[in-house]
Each structure stands twice: as structure tokens, then as C-alpha cells.
């Protein structure tokens, strides 16, 4: 009986201790492209999609943990890059982007060269909206 209890504690502890660990992707899951599909503002019912959005944007996540973010706005292309990590917490899965240099396309609530997106079902949701930025939703494209 003691052995079974010890085994259950070890297995249970192992399962729950990994909840804050970084998720690693296999090469089969990367690269991934996440495309901006919806924008919303702080005003109710201010949702836009497709060509009506203020800009078009996507992230490309690579197997070496690097990424490229591309934005096209008013016929001008912008690009920024850096490294990303994915963390799973009890309240969700977070994609954290750290940029190589400052860029006007970094959407965040701080002066740092970082962004965080949270995975909700099949979408990535930007956290910029928390400080009056636009609500951004991304969908994975193959």
C-alpha cells in the first residue's frame, strides 16, 4: 500500500510540476505562420476584419525559436525579428516575443522590446488591449 501511495505521489507531482515549464515544439510543428484576422478598439462594436483593418500583419515562428513579424500599413512594409518562447501556466499558454531591436510594430504595454500573446482555442490574442491598445486576434495559416 505504501508503494502504491508513493508511486501516485511521484506521478502526480511530476504531472503538476510541469505546468509552468516552457513548451518545446518539435520540428514537425514549426515553422508556423499566424495571420492577423481581427482588430477591435476600445469602443463597443468596433471590430474590423480583412481589408478593413488598419493594417495587415503576421508572425512567422521558426524551429530555432526565432520569429519575424511583418506589418503592411498604407502600402509600407515593416519587419521586426527576435526570439520567442512558449509558456504554459494554469491560466493559459503564452507566446512571449523578445525583439532584437526597438520597432514601431511592437504592440505592448511597456517600454520593453517584448510582446505577449495568449492562446485561446485556435487563436492567439494580443495583450496590448489591456492598456488601451487595439485588440488583435491571429489565426494560424498553413
On the 0-100 scale, what is the average pLDDT?
84
Q: What can be said about the biggest beta sheet?
A: 8 strands, antiparallel, barrel
Rough outline:
globular
Helix content, binned percent: 10-25%
Total beta strand runs: 9
Count of alpha/pi helices: 1
**Which regions contain 5 or more consecutive residues with pLDDT less than 50?**
1-25
Secondary-structure topology with pairs:
Blueprint lengths: L1 H16 L14 E9 L7 E2 L6 E6 L4 E8 L2 E14 L2 E8 L14 E7 L2 E4 L8 E7 L1
Antiparallel strand pairs: 1-2, 1-3, 1-9, 3-4, 4-5, 5-6, 6-7, 7-8, 8-9
Q: What does it look like?
A:
- This protein has 142 residues and is mainly beta.
- The chain has one helix and nine strands, in the order αβββββββββ.
- It has an eight-stranded antiparallel barrel.
- Strand 3 (56-61) and strand 4 (66-73) form a beta hairpin.
- The radius of gyration is 18 Å and the shape is globular.
- The model is unreliable at 1-25 (pLDDT under 50).
Note the main attributes of this structure.
142 residues; mainly beta; 8-stranded antiparallel β-barrel; 1 helix; disordered N terminus
Short description:
The chain has one helix at residues 2-17; strands at 32-40, 48-49, 56-61, 66-73, 76-89, 92-99, 114-120, 123-126, 135-141.
